[in-house]
TrEMBL record:
PANTHER family: MAGNESIUM-CHELATASE SUBUNIT CHLD, MOXR FAMILY PROTEIN. This is Cobaltochelatase CobS. It comes from Halomonas cerina. Its EC number is 6.6.1.2. Signal peptide: none annotated. The keyword Ligase applies. Residues 64-186 form the ATPase dynein-related AAA domain. GO terms for molecular function: ATP binding; ATP hydrolysis activity; cobaltochelatase activity.
Length: 326
């Protein structure tokens, strides 16, 4: 894998031209791609407000956090903006196994000229700081407290990073960028959906210049994404099926917002449901295996009612009839 380009962005392109956003913002881009630039997903649909917030991060070196429920495409949104800017990108999931040493670096034994020697190996933070890279911290609100304080200093726009073991101060590359995604806004697991999230230090949250909220897409756009992932459904019958599936998903989200359900169907689950339809050739059975069996048993009758409203038939009867006929 090649190193990220060390040259500065060499072109300025309007946000209107790249993303169709009603904005005069001019965005720096690289004319060449390297191995760290994400692949472009032509089926991805951009939220204009969130896209503009991310572009502000790339253009003005703002620290941008994207917050939203699971499956809204938070990390992918940042990656797909970077893909169209040809901007190198690194993504780190702040799960419970990520330690301070993973971020900062540690001594490791390596072989030099046939001799074992101890050598300091940089972690992801100093490595990224020295390059024109967009560093994305995924699941930011799940990071351990000792890990989060490592990040706090570089949240400042010109924040220098000190490697104590090396007696070295790292100055950030002028085109280093920092982003994060989170299910909460640092207030903890208020809904019960996101076990493992932490209450974040308010002083650290205050260092994020922009916090953008990403909601689920309108029905038509969500259906277009599902069709992009499962192109075999792009027929009259398939489009009607996908529209009904997205309608069920929207009802689960409304039920969750009203407190009737403890879980909801994300766009990722709708795509999984459509893919499973290709395997089982049965929307009802695929629905059970993709979502219904994940629900609390006491809530399954309500979810089955949602299915009946959108598909015009009882879930149990449709599944049994299709299963016996096949």
């Amino acid at each position: 894998m090649t190193e990220p380009l060390n040259a500065q962005p060499d072109r300025m392109v309007s946000a209107r031209e790249l993303f169709g956003i009603d904005s005069d913002l001019m965005v720096p881009t690289f004319s060449e791609r390297d191995d760290y630039v994400p692949d472009i997903d032509e089926a991805y649909r951009f939220n204009p407000d969130v896209t503009l917030a991310i572009l502000a991060g790339f253009t003005r070196n703002r620290r941008v956090m994207v917050q939203g429920l699971h499956g809204t495409g938070k990390s992918t949104h940042i990656e797909q903006v970077a893909a169209r800017l040809n901007w190198p990108c690194m993504r780190v999931n702040l799960d419970g196994h990520i330690s301070r040493l993973d971020l900062v670096g540690k001594d490791a034994i390596v072989v030099r000229d046939g001799v074992q020697v101890t050598e300091f190996q940089e972690g992801i933070v100093p490595w990224s700081l020295q390059r024109p890279v967009a560093l994305i911290f995924d699941e930011y609100d799940a990071g351990r407290p000792d890990v989060m304080f490592v990040i706090q200093r570089i949240l400042e726009r010109d924040g220098h990073f000190t490697l104590l073991d090396q007696n070295r101060v790292i100055h950030p590359h002028p085109h280093f960028r920092l982003f994060a995604t989170a299910n909460t806004v640092g207030l903890g697991n208020l809904t019960g959906l996101y076990q493992g999230t932490q209450v974040l230090n308010h002083a650290q949250m205050d260092r994020w210049n922009i916090v953008a909220k990403l909601d689920y897409l309108p029905r038509d756009e969500e259906a277009a994404i599902v069709l992009g992932r499962v192109p075999s459904k792009d027929t009259d019958k398939g489009r009607r099926l996908i529209a009904s599936m997205v309608a069920v998903a929207n009802l689960t989200r409304q039920g969750f917002a009203a407190g009737d359900l403890s879980t909801l169907m994300s766009p990722r689950t709708v795509i999984t449901w459509a893919e499973n339809c290709e395997i089982f050739r049965n929307p009802a059975l695929a629905f059970r295996l993709s979502f219904l069996n994940k629900c609390d048993e006491a809530e399954r009758p309500l979810v089955a009612e949602y299915y009946q409203r959108c598909f015009g038939e009882e879930l149990d009867e449709s599944w049994m009839r299709e299963a016996t006929s096949s």
